[in-house]
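[step 3/7] fold_predict: job queued, chain A
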Amino acid sequence: MQDVLNLFRDFDHDEQARLCARHLELLRNDLGDAWWDYPKDERRQAVRHNDANSSKGGWTREHVGLAGHLIRHAGESVDFPSTVDFVTAATLEHIQVSHSASKRRTSGNLKQWSLFTHEHMVPGQAVLRLITDVKHPASHGDLQSFLASLSLRALVTGTKRKRAEGWTRQEVNELDDKWSYRLPKPNEIDGWRGAKQLAEIPPQFYGLMRYEAAGLLCALVPVSRRGKRVLSDYLAYRGN
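[step 4/7] structure written:
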């Protein structure tokens, strides 16, 4: 198993987040007060359909696309499957089988997209809502630490690509059922005893809350130093 774990590596999440945060802060300055209007459903609907009136509020499809691109890359390296923070136990089994049978034991074994999916544990849409939420204390000022906290990633079984006939449910389907684009509220997690408002919970826990709500927390295997630290802190926070 150690030879498979050696396929993963750490990288400088804070520096990557800093680069993207600077550009998002420029976008925030450019949009002014309209930056805080993004989470409204009617605004997203107008932007999505390229409504001419949407430009009156500042956000355009181009703004949304740029923000989404920056958010996605705030937590990714060029070799993104190699720098995830977690894999599920079932995904690790897939990797172990292919790695053992492969003549070239490289990180290519981490790119079997017909079997598993690279997942942002806090979806990009959820991140955008968080950083444009005027009531969230971390959305004001420097966004670097906020973005870094929200950038945990994982490899899970299943694919979002075209499914073959007779496919069976996989881990990615458990996430997509309710949590494809949003985070759970604390009261949507069984046995929650922490803070009752999301803004009162450390942001680095948001991705793990989503996985717990989907029933996948116990399946996670940390493969980065950051992943090990955050999982340990989360379990302590949860009283486990």
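[step 5/7] annotate
The chain has a mean pLDDT of 88.
Strands lie at 86-88, 116-120, 153-157, 220-222.
exit 0
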